[in-house]
């Protein structure tokens, strides 16, 4: 054993290893593990040790090992020999292994590193391990290189304000190559703040904001008793300033525009307006649809102006002309003949009462009724009268080919019958009636009638 003691002098020397001027050999200090003469080492044998000792401040000072470095045989087998280099230090009175070189890998807090450098601290749920790269004056970076590909992970201090504000972590590439962030196996990729995942890219490429399981290419979810909004913002009020949300397929394109107040109006592109537009590539045009029993409502100034219901009936509300309802009646399969005083009710999509095709209309005071009709008959057309009926009462009619309204006016016809105001369930119907007692029959071939009801409000 070689024991070197450093006495307190002004120029302590310790131990020195001198190397002669020989470029092919280096000075060295060797620790040889040997059990007895001719006996080899075994797995887990220790190979020498460099110990750094001191005396503590006990009344009777005790010698302590403050730190040590030693080798350890892992595999003593011929041709597969392995040995580790172990680092220990004194922590709270106990000598503890803190780091190890193993098979070319360096581990801190683990005796079995599986990556080039691996840090491990505590058990599951403990404080995360830290590897700190610091520079108190400017920028601390972790440089990763491979061939011509370089990337820096930078922590910017308060000294640096460009390219990022102070106290932010910035990941950036310092070469001309692309920067890729992602996973290399079949797992999802998450971005989070405040220890919570905020955005997810699933392994199939679907993107979710506010959800870990998106079901579409992009799904935004914020479950709350309030509006969940997506904002596309352009706060410039310029002659060409606008926002476009575009949808596109291999053939058809469509755009939702919002134009700034300073936009130069051109045709349908009007300043300070919103426009939904099918582009010229959409040869079938623009469609609006409500499936099932839903309706389509049109509003201006927070007031509903027009409704198209699931049956195709249109109600138009106008402050000057009142609201309107339009219905279509037809006789898809005419009975063939209508004799004197016979009635043939036309069909519609409404309810059927006593073989009559009728629809329920809204309550209120009617101020006008108008019709458009196409009635063809092989014979006897002038012997037919077309009636519009409300609650089984004919409010006006058209007689034969002369198209003469028999009442002096629609309004007076309604008022004279005392049916200008109706209840909550009112029935509108249309029928043809034979009117010539001398004629035998009228033979029908085609009947289509459109009726518009106009209300005072």
Describe the structure.
The protein is mostly beta strands. The protein has five domains: 46-119, no CATH class; 132-181, no CATH class; 186-230, no CATH class; 236-287, no CATH class; 307-455, Jelly Rolls (Sandwich), CATH 2.60.120. Helix content is 2%, strand content 43%. The chain has one helix and 30 strands. It has one helix spanning 410-416; strands at residues 46-55, 63-75, 82-91, 94-102, 105-108, 117-119, 139-146, 149-156, 168-172, 189-193, 196-201, 207-209, 218-220, 242-248, 253-259, 274-278, 296-300, 303-308, 314-318, 322-330, 337-338, 343-345, 352-353, 356-361, 366-379, 384-390, 393-399, 404-405, 426-434, 442-455. Strands 17, 18, 19, 20, 21, 25 and 30 form a seven-stranded antiparallel sheet that branches. Strands 22, 23, 24, 26, 27, 28 and 29 form a seven-stranded antiparallel sheet that branches. A hairpin with a 5-residue loop joins strand 18 and strand 19 (314-318). The longest helix is centred in the C-terminal third of the chain and has 7 residues, at 410-416. The radius of gyration is 46 Å and the shape is rod-shaped.
